[in-house]
Structure formats: C-alpha cells, structure tokens
Design brief:
alpha/beta, 2-enoyl-CoA Hydratase, Chain A, domain 1, 2 domains, 12 helices, 48% helix, globular, Delta2-dienoyl-CoA-isomerase, Enoyl-CoA_hydra_C, ClpP/crotonase-like_dom_sf
Length: 286
C-alpha cells in the first residue's frame, strides 16, 4: 500500500484489507491546492486499481492537529483566474466556480470509494476539516478534539461541503447555523451530542486511531459486496425519498443477491469458521 503514498499523504496497510491514510503536511496539515489534489489522487488510484481495501481509516500524522483547514498563504492561488483583470466579472466568476467544483470533487472522494472511510479525528479540526469528515462514513473523535467551522472568520461562507452535509448529519439546523455564523470552537463531547461523531475516545491521536482501526478490522471481516452495497444504498437514501430508495434497492439487490458471499457465509457458519471473501474487483481474463 505504500506505493499509494504521496509527498504529504502516507498510506499503509495496518491489517489485512485495512488501510491507514495519514495527512502529513507540516506543520498543521494546512491544505494547499497541491495537497487537496494529492488527496483525490490517492482515493482515485485505490478505486481505479481495484485495491483490495475493505475499510480505510483517515487521520493525521501529527498528534496535536487533524487539519488547520485551508492554507491561507496558498489561498490566493484559488482566485488567480478571478483576479485576472482582463476578464469581465461573469467570466471571472465562471472560472472561480470551476475551481471550487474541482475542490469539492476532491474533498468528496471518500463518498465515491466503494469501501467505508472512518475519520479518526484528534486535536484541532478546523474549517476544511469539517468538510472532510462530513463526507466520511463514520466519525470517531478523540476527547481532546476541538472543532470549528471557521470560514466566516476569514470572510466567506463554507463552500466545500460542510453546509451540505452537517445539517443532514446532525438534523439540528439551529446549531449548525449557530456554529457557522459564530465560527466558535466546540468540543468532541458537543459533536457527539448532536451526532456529528458516533464515538468519543478518551485520549488523543493514538487512542482514537487504535479504536478506528479496530472498527475497520471488524468491518473488513464482513462481505465486501454487502458492505459496499450498503454504503451505496445508505447514501442513496439520504438524497432520495423512501419510495425512490426502496425501488432502487430492489433493482440493486436483484443483482447483488446473486453473490457467492452469501454461500460463503452459510458455509463458514456451518463449520464455525471465519468466512473468506474475495475482493470486490475480479481479475480480468483478458
């Protein structure tokens, strides 16, 4: 798995089919354009190669910070086209929109992955950090985590995902508006109370990463067809009506129920052994 690592992202297999992906841009994992492009590159490569990943844990290499958010020193690069005074306002805006959509697509990479992505958050998780974890399947936080939706303090509305995901995740529009408008810090305990994270782990980076890896290992022991299909259908349910999701699930499972993983589960249960499932991607015979 190390071959998927980049300059600022470390990728390793910490257990069979379980990957740890660590953000590692000193000093505080501030996101420059190159950093978020690398982030997408890692996910795209894992997906395109059909790497046998059953669960991925996303964390930081640095004990005191998950991410400080956008690299403000690099932020001017995002607006370079918009600042081009040879363009009129409409054309400059279209250029800026193109950049923002590309940024959103990169940070949204975990949702496109066929495997679950577990965010193991600790230390400071600021601004873009909320965008990143909002798109992950599961969120664990160390008790020392401090969160903040910080964009208002630098003069803009969050635009990479927080406002799309957080109201749906928490179901508390009042609180999300408060946190967004004030940019105030909030704790792991408050994040758990509103459902932003599903578990608070006492301690810091090491403790939360350990807990997330244990969860990932347990998920990895399940049928990858079942887990991947469940991820896809849960996401579909979030964005569609109940009736639409039931109809879609019927079509999806009409094919998915033909998996050999069901027979493998029955076989293993009968002889009291752990089932052995093949990877999602079947090697090509061509």
């Amino acid at each position: 798995m190390e071959k998927y690592s980049t300059k600022w992202i470390k990728v390793s297999e910490v257990a069979p089919q379980v990957v740890l992906m660590q953000l590692a841009r000193k000093p505080v994992n501030a996101f420059s354009t190159d950093f978020w492009l690398q982030y997408q590159q890692v996910f795209d490569a894992l997906i395109e190669d059909g790497a046998d990943v059953r669960a991925l844990v996303l964390s930081s290499e640095f004990p005191k910070v998950f991410t400080a958010g956008l690299d403000l020193a690099d932020a001017n690069n995002l607006g370079a086209d918009a600042a081009d005074d040879t363009r009129d306002a409409a054309r400059a805006s279209l250029a800026m929109r193109k950049v923002l959509l590309k940024f959103q697509h990169a940070i949204g990479s975990p949702e496109r992955a066929p495997f679950p992505v577990i965010a193991a958050v600790h230390g400071h998780c600021i601004g873009l950090g909320l965008d990143m974890i909002g798109v992950c399947d599961i969120r664990y936080a160390a008790s020392n985590t401090t969160f903040a939706i910080k964009e208002v303090d630098i003069g803009l509305a969050p635009d990479i995902g927080s406002l799309a995901f957080l109201p749906k995740i928490t179901g508390n529009h009042s609180l999300i508006r408060e946190l967004t408008y004030t940019a105030r810090n909030f704790s792991a305990a408050e994040a758990e109370k509103v459902g932003l994270v599903s578990r608070v782990v006492e301690g810091g980076r090491d403790e939360v990463v350990k807990s997330a890896i244990e969860l990932a290992k347990f998920i990895a022991s399940k049928s990858p067809v079942a887990v991947s299909g469940s991820k896809h259908l849960i996401t579909h349910a979030r964005d569609h009506t109940v009736a639409e999701n039931l109809a879609y699930t019927g079509a999806w499972n009409a094919a998915a129920l033909m998996t050999s993983d069901i027979l493998e589960n029955l076989r293993a249960t009968k002889i009291k052994q752990k089932p052995k499932f093949g990877p999602l991607k079947v090697p090509s015979r061509l």
